[in-house]
Amino acid sequence: MDSEAFLAAARELVTTGPVCDACLGRPVADRSHGLTNAARGAALRTTLALLDNEPYDPPGPNDCWVCEGICGRLDSLAERAVTAIGDAEFETYQVGTRVPPLVEENERLLREDAGLAPDAGEPLRSEVNREVGKRVGRLTETTVDFDRPNVQILLDVDADRVEAQVNSAFVYGRYQKLERGIPQTRWPCRTCNGVGRTGDGPCDACDGTGLTYQRSVEQLVAPVVEDVMDGVGATFHGAGREDVDARMIGTGRPFVVEVDEPRRRTVDVERLEADVNAFAEGAVEVEDLCLATHPMVERVKTLDAAKRYRATVAFDVKVSEPALADAVTELDGATIAQYTPERVDHRRAGRTRERDVYGIEATLDGPREATVEIHGEGGLYVKELVSGDNDRTEPSLAGLLGVGAEVRALDVLAVEAEHDEQFADESYLW
Asked: Which residues of 52-90 are buried (b: 16+ CB within 10 A; e: fewer)?
């Protein structure tokens, strides 16, 4: 658009009726960067007044037929936004706005009357987002974040309502489970479906608790994190899980606790670690706690991970050291075909999965007992690698030895990312 056509369009905008400076400047928001829309509108109005030698008499936002006073309420909206956030601790925010449909129609008519494209410049909601956002930043000394802000501010101008949504906070760490018989997450009672009652009385299977197991790693860790960060709920995300009867020792298992609507975000992670460990009373211990970002959840849940195990194995007949050594040699580096194990086929699809044994060692502790250490690909069923699972796993230690074999005790020693990666990538932590 040349200068003459631009001035003609500006003149048409002014003559549509009383239009405030911001609404006058918004249809040309793509010109002359570094100006507010109100500054653009004032400049247009001043230029036309000088050219036409007419009095300079700008209408205020309350008289504007386009925004109907919205552009004059930006300071108030920002103050209400800060009030809505309350005492929640935050460093980043984002503003979203709902504009009344009638005002959106006014915006369209303004451009139509001036012969401009319906999407010329920028819409009112974008200006409100930006201008209120700038004011919130100044009032709170925080910064805008369009990706994953700590706080999402919602301005419903149509309903005259301002709300603030406090987004989740995240704590990453590793846990050790030092006692057997503890699941990773809450395990609802199957008899009462977690309700705690059957018929007219408490459920006999769970003593009215609604839980198959009274403790879990989640129950020993997440509530403490939630309390310290003053949240309204918490979700535990683990990098896989070990069996209920297995310990998780060694270097521990990576996890993230997601805290809903936290009022506190910057916490002393060393003190938090001590608080969790004190609450768990030796059943579970956490270490390397640090504050994390939302992508860390997906990383923990999806990053390929290898595992190291130590199993106490019992045989149904005597086994010689040479025979055990030969069987271990066969399994070392082997690719194992495992049909869905009998113990999990009620909750997993029946199919054959192939997993690699990266390394394996075994030591006889007696004629019918051995300690076996296994380094395997993620998803390898270790108990079945030992027992054969009625020929569902091939090859297996039991099958190669030609004897019955059973894991009596299992410890997970390490959960390690494949391909020399690290779970605790600094780009996901702060």
From this structure: eeeeeebbebeebbbbbebbbbbeebbebbbebbeebbb
Q: Biggest alpha carbon distance in the chain?
A: 111
- Are 99 and 124 contacting, i.e. CB atoms less than 8 angstroms apart? yes
Q: Is residue 426 classed exposed, middle or buried when 0-12, 13-18 and 19+ CB atoms within 10 A define those classes?
A: exposed
- Pairing type for strands 393-394 and 369-376 reads unpaired
Judged by DSSP in three states, 7 sits in helix
Question: Quick one: pLDDT at residue 1?
Answer: 66
Q: ∠ at Cα 290 (288, 291), nearest 5°?
A: 165
Structure-token pair, residue 424: 């605790």
Q: What does the pLDDT look like over 343-396, one tens digit per residue? A: 887 777 789 999 999 999 999 999 999 999 999 999 999 999 999 999 999 999
DSSP string over 160-177? TEEEEEE--EEEEEEEEE
Q: In the chain, pLDDT over 90 holds for what percent of residues?
A: 87
E strands within 300-346?
305-315, 335-339
Residue 415 dihedral angles phi and psi, to the nearest 5°:
-125, 110
Does residue 297 share a domain with residue 261? yes
What letter does residue 58 receive in the DSSP assignment? P
Query: If DSSP states are collapsed to H, E and C, what string results for 103-135?
Result: HHHHHHHHHHHCCCCCCCCCCHHHHHHHHHHHH
Residues 295 and 309 in one domain: no
pLDDT digits (tens, 9 = 90+) for 169-195: 999 999 999 999 999 999 899 899 899
What residues have CB less than 8 Å from 355, skipping those under 6 apart? Answer: 335, 336, 338, 376, 377, 378, 379, 380, 381
The residues, ordered by sequence, that sit 6+ positions from 22 with a Cβ below 8 Å of its Cβ are 36, 37, 38, 41, 61, 67, 71, 127
- Residue where a domain stops, chosen among 135, 166, 197: 166
The residues annotated with a catalytic role in the active site are 243
Burial (0-12, 13-18, 19+ Cβ within 10 Å), 144: middle
In the three-class reduction of DSSP (H, G, I as helix; E, B as strand; rest coil), residue 239 is classed as coil
Domains held by the chain: number? 3
The single-letter DSSP state of residue 429 is: B
**Same domain, yes or no: 209 and 313:** no
Domain edge (last residue) among 286, 302, 318: 302
Structural domain harbouring 413: 305-417
Distance CA 210, CA 203 (A): 8
pLDDT at 2 over 80: no
